[in-house]
Structure formats: C-alpha cells, structure tokens
Amino acid sequence: MKLTVEQAAAKWYKDGMELRDGDHLRIFVRLGGCGSVHPGLSLGVMKDEPVRPGLSQRVEGITFYMEEDNLWYLDNKELRISFDDKHEEIVMKVV
After folding, report:
1. E strand segments, 1-95
2. In b/e form, how buried is each residue of 62-82, taking b as 16+ CB within 10 angstroms?
3. Is 21 exposed, middle or buried, given 0-12, 13-18 or 19+ CB atoms closer than 10 A?
4. Alpha helices in the chain (DSSP H)
5. pLDDT in tens, 44-67
6. How far apart are CA 9 and CA 85, in angstroms?
7. Rounded to the nearest 5°, which phi and psi values hold at 84?
8. How many CA atoms does the CB half-sphere of 30 hold within 13 Å?
9. How far, in Å, CA of 86 to CA of 95, rounded?
C-alpha cells in the first residue's frame, strides 16, 4: 500500500484550507459520496492529529495520512491524490 500526494494537490489543500507547515490532513473513509472502490463509500479529508497512522506523506510542509483502521479501503493498492488543472479540482484514485 502506498499514499502519493502530488505537489499541486498539496498546495491546493494548503491554500484552500489555510493550512500551515506542520499541520496534518487526515484522509478517512466516509459513508456516501461517489467513491469508485467500495459502493456507498468515499474518501473525506479533514485537519486532524494522527493517532495510529498507517500511511503518510509530507508534501508542502503538510503531512497527509490515513489511520490504520481505514487502510482496508485501499485493498493493498495505492491512493494517488492529484490536482486536475482543467477542472480545478482534486482527484483521488485508488490504483
């Protein structure tokens, strides 16, 4: 399993959520939305402090992470977070 956050995506979150160097951004499984991995579930993002991080990556001074108890969602695959310039939106893909 792997978490990959592209620099453009990290900058978008940092600017849009007014994050500062040293902040943490948790990626978590939530009910609803239009996730493609598990029907009826999708990924959410919130500023939070890690408790038991299973995956993490530091980009643009921000630590993006998933807690151990949410790793089942990835099914031993990679989560890639990128920014789509054309549509000006974040793209999360499990590959």
Report:
1. 2-5, 24-31, 41-47, 53-59, 62-67, 78-84, 89-94
2. bbbbbbeebbebbeeeebbbb
3. exposed
4. 7-16
5. 999 999 999 999 999 999 999 999
6. 10
7. -90, 105
8. 11
9. 21
Strand order, beta sheet including 24-31: 41-47, 24-31, 62-67, 53-59
∠ CA 29-36-13, rounded to 5°: 55
The whole-model pTM stands at 0.92
Please choose, from the candidates 90, 71, 81, 95, the residue with its C-alpha nearest in 3D space to the C-alpha of residue 4: 81
* pLDDT tier, 41 (very low <50, low <70, confident <90, very high otherwise): confident
